[in-house]
Specification:
The structure holds two protein chains of two kinds. Helix content of chain A is 21%, strand content 37%. Chain A is of the alpha+beta class. The chains are: A alpha+beta, B alpha+beta.
Chain lengths: 316, 188
């Protein structure tokens, strides 16, 4: 895959013009760009391509989209990615959302989103506050750490901004869990509970800016709309057969061949691999079509099988 | 005139002769190999697509694939854009010029001579067009079709092109073309 992409990058230089652009009904297209710009969430723009790209659908990108929808009023429309990383922080009394955009990817395959979530709970104890950090990520769900906050001058009821201010500073010191903490840190004494969610978005290194757009109709992440390589869904073949074919022989053998199938066919045979149609006799030859098959091996098999079945007895 | 098939001969050797006389069948045989006239594949890019005339998808396809005819999304009509290649042979050749080693493109690739069968498949690819319908949600429908031209008045089912062989190898070549295009569209 990397070899392939490396080659793609080498091939990326302009090759030839793109002259045959048939822009039907150009007068109706004037606002397509505007229209389409209203239906996506995080768009990444780079200096190597026109237009924008988005992250591959995944559970995490879905969470990112949900978060953008929820906080769209607090998120800038666009952020320039001048440096290797760019961070945004959205703070409310009960929630902190960090968005870190890292320009690390060599190509679009490297673009992805990681999400980590923690729950902070605070208890007041004498002159200190005890904070418990509980991991909500599936890989280390429930892991907790305890911190002691010294001499807080900030109001307890404004947990989000307070946590942002003290987090990572000497004011908040990690401590070992002791017996007294079990007594203090009970549900009824809890003063603040804050959910902190970190989105780490890896984008291509040549990204220039990212835009955030709200869309509540965006496709949900499901297996159906996840990335998939091409797979055959319908292949039709044409061929000819010769020899005498009897409708009764088909009916007797297959118990289903219909007289006069669709598209002017004389005989229509449904199989689990596809549909075979036999058309009228034309100077000893009959045209056959095999429709809705998935590969030629299966179509050949059905044709051979039907040919073997429908051969008629001499004299009949 | 009915053909005597290998199936018939097999029966002759394996069955009692008296039985054979009464069960002798007139063989129905394929008088020509099956030829694909329409091949549809489904895929998904896994992300939303910028399909505007000056957007990402058009730009990438323009730079990395042979010349295509492009029909943009038409508002009120549909949410898909269409790209058409009259012949997929050029795409196949592109897909075949794979690097010999990871990240290294062959400077002077050695092109082996095609076998007669491969030559027929090449002819078939030359006569096969590709239409890619791609939606803003990332759904891709690849439709390969043999170019077909009506020949005058009497026989409407004849191709004007010389008969090109179609085998499972040809089909695999078409699948390869499709994968090549899809990788470019979805992950370039």
């Amino acid at each position: 895959m990397h070899a392939y992409l490396a080659r793609i990058l080498k091939m990326a230089a302009p090759r030839r013009d793109f002259p045959i652009i048939k822009e039907h009904k150009r007068h109706r297209l004037h606002n397509i760009a505007a229209q389409s710009s209203a239906d996506d969430m995080l768009r990444i723009h780079s200096n190597s391509n026109r237009g924008w790209t988005t992250l591959q659908r995944s559970k995490n990108s879905q969470r990112l989209n949900d978060m953008i929808n929820k906080h769209i009023e607090h998120i800038p429309t666009s952020v320039h990615l001048l440096h290797e990383s760019k961070s945004l922080c959205i703070v409310s009394s009960a929630e902190i959302v960090n968005i870190h955009i890292l320009k690390q990817g060599l190509n679009r395959d490297d673009e992805h989103c990681e999400v980590e979530q923690y729950e902070y709970t605070c208890w007041k104890a004498d002159k200190v506050c005890i904070w418990e950090k509980k991991c909500k990520n599936s890989d280390s769900f429930g892991c907790t750490s305890l911190f002691e906050e010294q001499c807080s001058s900030l109001p307890l009821d404004n947990g989000g901004p307070r946590l942002v201010q003290i987090s990572g500073t000497p004011q908040m010191r990690r401590i070992n869990k002791k017996k007294k903490h079990a007594r203090i840190c009970c549900e009824k004494n809890c003063t603040t509970r804050i959910v902190v969610t970190n989105f780490v978005v890896n984008v291509v290194a040549n990204a220039t800016h990212a835009t955030f757009i709200s869309d509540r109709t965006i496709t949900r992440y499901t297996e159906k709309n996840a990335f998939s390589m091409p797979r055959a869904v319908n292949i039709c073949y044409t061929g000819t057969v010769n020899g005498k074919i009897q409708q009764t022989a088909i009916s007797a053998e297959m118990n289903q061949a219909k007289k006069k199938g669709p598209c002017g066919s004389e005989i229509h045979i449904d199989t689990s691999m596809g549909v075979m149609q036999i058309f009228g006799n034309n100077s000893g030859q009959r045209k056959i079509t095999c429709k809705a098959f998935l590969n030629i091996g299966e179509a050949d098999f059905i044709v051979d099988r039907v040919c073997a079945m429908v051969s008629s007895l001499p004299g009949k | 005139m009915h053909h005597v098939s290998p199936h018939y001969l097999h029966r002759k050797h394996s069955c009692d002769c008296n039985v054979f006389i009464f069960t002798k069948q007139l063989q129905i045989e394929k008088s020509s190999d099956l030829v694909m006239h329409m091949l549809v594949l489904y895929a998904n890019t896994g992300c939303k697509m910028d399909l505007s005339s000056f957007g990402y998808t058009v730009d990438v396809i323009r730079r990395m694939l042979p010349v295509a005819e492009y029909t943009p999304c038409i508002e009120e009509h549909n949410i898909h854009a269409i790209f058409r290649w009259p012949s997929v042979l050029d795409i196949y050749r592109d897909s075949n010029s794979a690097p010999l080693h990871a990240g290294i493109v062959a400077q002077d690739p050695v092109v082996p001579l095609a076998t007669p069968d491969e030559g027929k498949s090449i002819d078939f690819l030359k006569q096969t067009g590709l239409t890619l319908s791609i939606t803003t949600l990332g759904t891709c429908i690849y439709r390969f079709g043999k170019k077909r031209c009506r020949e005058g008045t009497h026989d409407t089912d004849q191709y004007i092109f010389p008969e090109a062989g179609y085998t499972s190898e040809t089909e695999q070549m078409i699948f390869k073309v499709c994968k090549h295009v899809h990788k470019i569209v979805s992950s370039s």
